[in-house]
Design brief:
about 300 residues, three-stranded antiparallel β-sheet, three-stranded mixed β-sheet, 12 helices, 13 strands, elongated
């Protein structure tokens, strides 16, 4: 039997029966085998390949008060999450205090006090703002996990970088939201993390690397440093830099495994030497353990350039 075609706006991701009713789709059509029922009153076209906001949008269509929060909101914003939080694939759904608690399969419900501006619309879904999302993560995350998420939210790269990156919020906004919710769960962890968040870290490994170096007693490296060429153009963008000692640190992640990237890394290291700097290349294995190898590698590079521990 021929199935009626769904309206285009229902084919890209999840949709609620509330939305399909408004679109004139019969309930018989919503029970067809080309649609998966992922939760009560929510359908997803099997061939949609929906991810991110598209996969979660139906949860905020269920009523006029539900919004994505915590890890679910963080995923939509693209915030960096620790490996532990990445494993939490439940849908975190919040409503304002005084309303009924969201209750359904695979949903973690939250009743929340939300101040003006803390609930926004983005990419077709209703969710908590970046700063409020970060604060809510404090109820389920440790200090380092909050620093990882915070670094990714405030990260900024200006026009002198190969790819411009605008921050989703600022450190000042994070400080303000902590001040606005002094009794929030995890507020002590949030306050501690605030002192460690920096602008310029692109990824969780870069944040992990910086924290390991500082906690081992090494100087804190500078982020967002640019090496300028003789003709006044930027030539190198180290992940972290010790400008005084001309030591650059580059984290080589999974994207550095290809042959073309390998050649670019070699050219980058050669250019670094030409400008009188020494490059420390760091892999994921260098970040493992209580005494990660990155500390030894960076300490050796600093000492080779005259740095001495006090």
């Amino acid at each position: 039997m021929h199935r009626a075609q769904l309206p285009e706006h229902l084919t890209a991701g999840s949709f609620s029966l509330r939305m399909s009713d408004k679109s004139g789709v019969s309930r018989t059509r919503t029970e067809a085998k080309d649609l998966a029922t992922v939760s009560r009153g929510i359908r997803v076209p099997l061939d949609s390949g929906a991810k991110g906001a598209a996969a979660l949008q139906a949860y905020t269509e269920l009523d006029d008060s539900s919004a994505l929060t915590h890890v679910s909101a963080a995923r939509v914003w693209g915030a960096a999450l620790s490996w532990r939080l990445e494993d939490d694939w439940r849908v975190h759904l919040g409503r304002r205090s005084g309303l009924s608690m969201p209750r359904r399969v695979n949903v973690v419900g939250h009743l929340m006090t939300l101040l003006p501006g803390e609930l926004v619309e983005y990419d077709g879904v209703r969710l908590t703002s970046p700063a409020r999302t970060w604060l809510d993560l404090a109820s389920m995350a440790g200090v380092d996990e909050l620093v990882v998420a915070g670094d990714s939210l405030v990260c900024f790269h200006g026009p002198e970088f190969p790819a411009l990156r605008e921050p989703l919020c600022t450190v000042a906004e994070l400080r303000a939201i902590v001040a606005d919710h002094p009794g929030a769960r995890g507020i002590r962890a949030a306050r501690a993390a605030l002192e460690l968040i920096r602008v310029g870290a692109d990824s969780q490994p870069e944040t992990t690397m910086r924290l390991a170096l500082v906690r081992a007693g090494l100087p804190e490296p500078e982020l967002n440093h640019v090496l300028w060429g003789v003709h006044g153009a930027p030539v190198l963008w180290p992940d972290a830099a010790y400008v005084q000692w001309r030591v650059s640190i580059q984290y080589d992640g999974a994207g550095h495994a290809g042959s073309e990237q390998y050649l670019r890394d070699i050219r980058r290291e050669s250019l670094t030497r030409e400008y009188g700097w020494v490059e420390v290349r760091v892999s994921k294995d260098d970040l493992v353990g209580d005494h990660p190898a990155v500390v030894r590698k960076v300490r050796a590079a600093l000492e080779s350039r005259g740095w001495r521990a006090r």
